[in-house]
Amino acid sequence: AVTATAEENPLTGEAGGIVTSGNNGYTYYITVENTESDPESVVPTNVVLTFAWPAPYERTNIEFVTEPSFPCDPIGPSGDITCLLGDMEPGATVELRITYNSPSDTPGGLLFRSAARVSADQEDSDTNNNRNNGINEVITEVNLGIEKTDNLDIVAPGDFGEYTIVVRNDG
Q1: What is the 3-class SS of the chain, one letter each residue?
Q2: CA Rg, the chain, in Å?
Q3: Which residues have a Cβ under 8 Å from the Cβ of 129 and sit 6 or more positions away?
Q4: How many whole angstroms separate alpha carbon 61 and alpha carbon 41?
């Protein structure tokens, strides 16, 4: 049986999570595994991983953690991903990382779904573990700050001073 899992946090095993609008460097971790341990079992051929890409996230990189790497399409910032993994011997595992950014104009409060699915030429006896779904909730983060400076330490009557005020959003 070939299985697929997709996580955003491999430490907790959670699929999906919170994404902050305008932040960069989020990662999906995808694992495809042939869970058969019997070396005499049928080897799944032409294994294909598809990953439904949640718009409007912008993909920045697709990287295979395990060797060898396999062809994936498209490589660009958007669109569902298809990776041709070839034949998978019993116990074989393929891991990849997909990094992405959440554009600053992504509205907060939206939910985006992602789905990893694996298939092969052979019929799988347990298709329940061939798909993994996740949901991201987008939040907006506002962190306003203000800074005030002046050009004089001491002001005497009749002197002119100048204040500079800067307001910023660090969110």
Answers
A1: CEEEEEECECCCCECEEEEECCCCCEEEEEEEEECCCCCCCCCCCCEEEEEECCCCCEEEEEEECCCCCCCEECCCCCCCEEEEEECCCCCCEEEEEEEEECCCCCCCCCEEEEEEEEECCCCCCCHHHCEEEEEEEEECCCCEEEEEEECCCCCCCCCCCCEEEEEEECC
A2: 24
A3: 1, 3, 4, 35
A4: 35
What is the number of residues in the chain?
Answer: 171
- pLDDT tens readout for residues 117-163: 999 999 888 888 888 887 777 877 666 788 888 887 787 888 888 88
Predicted TM-score (pTM) above 0.90: no
Cα 99 to Cα 110: distance, rounded to the nearest angstrom: 20
